[in-house]
Amino acid sequence: QVPPGGLPADVGCAVFNINTTICIFKAITTGMPVVNKVVTVSGSGIVDPKNIECPIGTPVSLLLDACGGVKDGTYKLIAGGPMMGIAQYNLDVTCIKGTNAVLCLTKKEAAPVVEEEVCLRCGRCVNVCPMHLTPVYMHLYAEKGMWKEAEALNVMDCIECGSCNYICPARLHLVQSFRVTKGELRALAAKEKAAKEAAKA
């Protein structure tokens, strides 16, 4: 069991997906570091969906061209999968070692943009959270800028899977607020560290 705020290494484990395992094998046997990535280009907005092996640093626009381009009516481009991916506003973004998919959605597939409603306290987000967190309260603290209180609820353990966003009947932007909270907590930690180092000096 990985403790809150910890890593698998803290309990003597290392977790690798198959792609990482292959990269380790290549590094040991050939000395070649990670320079290529297999990217899935998919979605109903793409002309010819396929898997493409490309060098790291390849612009997404070139991947789309290699798949015949995007169809008319393509509404949204997501780097990553439908649940954890991040919407892009520019095709000049490049593939990095963590890029595994590019998803092109039409307006029909993309979720409609709605104003946030009020939390119903239904608890569905708590039920679906794979990390056994309480998104309803973490979001409440994030809205009020109560970063330390959110940290006490282990917001840093959120894996940003998107399950709470998907299930929320009020369409609250939960994952986005957790990302902001994590950024604020990292900034606070950096400030505290700098203050300690200055005090030592």
What's a concise summary of this model?
This protein has 201 residues and is an alpha+beta fold.
Give the overall silhouette: globular
Strand content: 5-15%
User: Structural class from helices and strands?
Assistant: alpha+beta
Q: Which spans have pLDDT < 50 for at least 5 consecutive residues?
A: none
Q: Separation of termini?
A: 39 Å
Number of strands: 5
Instruction: Give helix % range.
Output: 25-40%
**What gyration radius follows from the Cα positions, in whole Å?**
20 Å
The ordered string of helix (H) and strand (E) elements is HEEHEEEHHHHH
User: Residue-averaged pLDDT, rounded?
Assistant: 89
Major sheet attributes: 5 strands, mixed
Taking strands numbered 1, 2, ... along the chain, how are they ordered across the largest sheet?
A: 2-1-5-3-4
Number of helices: 7
